[in-house]
């Protein structure tokens, strides 16, 4: 018998409310591990209430950029994706969870609350949509409405969740003839798991897109008109919840050489800039809606003497993320053309630029899409 005596110390009891508050602040990836380790909390950590609170506490953390890369001529179809952390430039493995071969094409439609909507196609008529959360590895398959409108002048998708809910919706907008002003739409919702609503609306423009921005259950496109459809005329807004479309004219003072939409300051930004000779200027306008669904234009900031390539551009905090494509060859008739793709972060306050990614393809490829992504626990 040992002469050594031990004094047991009781650990203080931590009530469930305090544990909840701790878990809510934990990053989503760690929450996923807690579900496996602690079965008693598995259900609570999967409830919509916890998922929404966890998103609110972590929505500004660990943002990354997903770059879709592919061959010409299609604007959207990609063969590869590269995922890069927006702060550090670290690359993360990113593979679409689908049994594929080299003949398949992908189009990343959008990302919302950590869930991606991807269109996969072998180039024929059996395309489908994948709704996928890379963190939880959950997937859902949706029929592809666009295969019914292959020859249409406009055929676009938008994807996003409705406000303060676990329900997501997919919007398909299309019209057959470019000269017509009436556009049609079909809407999928995850509650009914089907394309249950459809309708039409009159538009002031001939062409939309191609890039859509979904923010606060509204989808936004730039509407184009004129010769070559190069004149930005209006911002087309579709409310995914109310199923209504609105158009607001783009003021002449906001127009420049190049125009696009982007996520910015938890809202939507309209970018106009030009790089002509020594004249380099970029202006970011904030888009808001009043009680009558009229657009209110608010100038966020103006940057001069900083050149930005005419590629898809995203904004993260006070930095600008942009893509550059550089092509060169040795000049021989049998030499392949090399493509260098760079992801850069421009700190416009200090006019400095950092390279986050530099990757080389020994052939001619193009950047098709660039999408902001953050890991979250939302369900598919």
TrEMBL record:
Taxonomic superkingdom: Eukaryota
Task: Provide the F-box associated beta-propeller type domain boundaries.
Answer: 115-309
Q: Protein name, please?
A: Uncharacterized protein LOC127744890
Taxon lineage? Eukaryota, Viridiplantae, Streptophyta, Embryophyta, Tracheophyta
């Amino acid at each position: 018998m040992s002469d050594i005596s031990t004094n047991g110390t009781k650990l203080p009891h931590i009530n469930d409310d305090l544990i909840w508050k701790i878990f809510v602040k934990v990053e989503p990836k760690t929450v996923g591990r807690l579900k496996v380790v602690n079965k008693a909390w598995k259900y609570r950590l999967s409830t919509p209430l916890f998922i929404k609170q966890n998103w609110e506490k972590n929505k500004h953390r660990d943002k990354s950029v997903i770059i879709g890369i592919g061959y010409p001529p299609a604007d959207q179809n990609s063969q590869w994706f590269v995922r890069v952390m927006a702060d550090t430039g670290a690359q993360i493995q990113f593979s679409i969870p689908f049994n594929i071969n080299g003949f398949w094409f992908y189009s990343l439609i959008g990302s919302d609350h950590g869930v991606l909507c991807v269109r996969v196609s072998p180039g024929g008529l059996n395309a489908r949509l994948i709704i996928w959360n890379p963190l939880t590895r959950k997937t859902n398959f949706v029929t592809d409405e666009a295969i019914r409108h292959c020859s249409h002048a406009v055929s676009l998708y938008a994807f996003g969740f409705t406000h303060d809910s676990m329900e997501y919706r997919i919007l398909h907008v299309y019209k057959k003839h470019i000269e017509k002003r009436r556009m049609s739409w079909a809407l999928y919702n995850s509650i009914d798991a089907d394309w249950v609503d459809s309708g039409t609306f009159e538009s002031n423009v001939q062409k939309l897109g191609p890039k859509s921005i979904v923010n606060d259950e509204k989808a936004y496109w730039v509407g184009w008109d004129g010769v070559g459809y190069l004149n930005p005329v209006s911002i087309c807004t579709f409310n995914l919840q109310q199923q209504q479309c609105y158009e607001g004219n783009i003021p002449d003072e906001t127009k420049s050489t190049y125009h696009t939409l982007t996520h910015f300051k938890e809202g939507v930004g309209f970018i106009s800039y030009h790089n002509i000779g020594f004249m380099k200027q970029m202006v970011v306008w904030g888009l808001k809606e009043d009680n009558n669904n009229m657009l209110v234009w608010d100038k966020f900031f103006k940057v001069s003497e900083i050149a930005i390539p005419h590629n898809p551009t995203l904004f993260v905090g006070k930095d600008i993320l942009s893509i550059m494509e550089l092509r060169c060859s040795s000049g021989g008739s049998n030499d392949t053309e090399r493509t260098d793709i760079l992801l850069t972060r421009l700190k416009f306050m200090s006019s400095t630029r950092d390279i986050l990614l530099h990757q080389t393809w020994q052939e001619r490829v193009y950047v098709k899409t660039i999408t902001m992504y953050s890991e979250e626990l939302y369900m598919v």
